[in-house]
Amino acid sequence: MHEPQLKDGTSYNNKAASIGTNVDSISTNINNMSITNTEDSVPKGAGRDKEAEITSNKKVSTSCAQNSANHTMGRAYWKGEVVEKDQNKAIQHLKLAAIGGYEKARHCLGDAEMCNGNIDRAMKHYMIAAKSGYDNSLKLVGAGYKAGHVTKDEYAITLRAYQNTQDKMKSEQRTKAVDKIIYPEWHKVKNSK
Q1: C-alpha 109: how far from its chain's center?
Q2: Residue-range domain boundaries for the chain
Q3: Which one of 23, 46, 79, 89 is separated from 106 by 20 to 30 angstroms, measured CA to CA?
């Protein structure tokens, strides 16, 4: 198996080991994650439904981490940061993350298609990411509509799907949580009255 090389010619794994991190093993570990023991995390007497819910949440968490790692690796290969620039590997990692539902990766695939001159394919990627709620993609779909690369119907469908996604993410509980995180001083003043 070919070992990736850095721009300076040193081995990817040797460089990673010298800074105390083996980056290849991160991707491997994420790919090999599995849910084997949920008994420790299920409260006694919680029953099968709670166990299934916890197992499901762990699988989603693992999937999110894997998608994020694939997106990060894809961007690293695309830009040639830390690893030697390789567009094929970049596309492969970005596709895996996009298939997993990672909107940023879908957007990056659109960018890659745009760089390669495939405007129609790029717009399709941007529309999928925008329908999932990714703002930057929606802006590019709007620009594509103005430039004549996206039909009026496609743009309308994308806008409606984007709005539906935004509406689904809104809740009073979420707004309160965001307020506490982003505006902690404001929250303290508000509650002290």
Answers
A1: 12
A2: 1-99, 102-193
A3: 23
